Amino acid sequence: MLRVLGWCLRTVLRGAWTSAMLLVPLFGFWLASSVAAYQDASIWLALALGLALFPVIPVAWDLVYVWRRRRASEPPSRSILTRLDRLVLRTLLVNGAFLAIMLVQLPQVAFRALAVR
After folding, report:
1. For FRET with 80, which of 25, 41, 66, 104 sits at 20 to 30 Å CA-CA?
2. What is the overall mean pLDDT for the chain?
């Protein structure tokens, strides 16, 4: 019984961890598109930024890590984090930095844009 409960808890936490990888970039894209619409800017720029925030920058960062690790002179040891864990952490870091910059640079505009939309 305890084993099944542990498996269920791990599965729920893993799902929450992975869904954070999708929800944080969605919020960043929503914020970017709301600010773009509020300031009559190009929606295409917000779309390009949203695509860069989720699949492009974090995946490119992970591919560079794997490439550099294979090129290392000593044989690579077993990694502590899985590829999915690294991708989630990198996605959260990139999008967290974007959200922090947006909310520090344009706090009133960001909240008005979100409220209007």
Report:
1. 25
2. 89
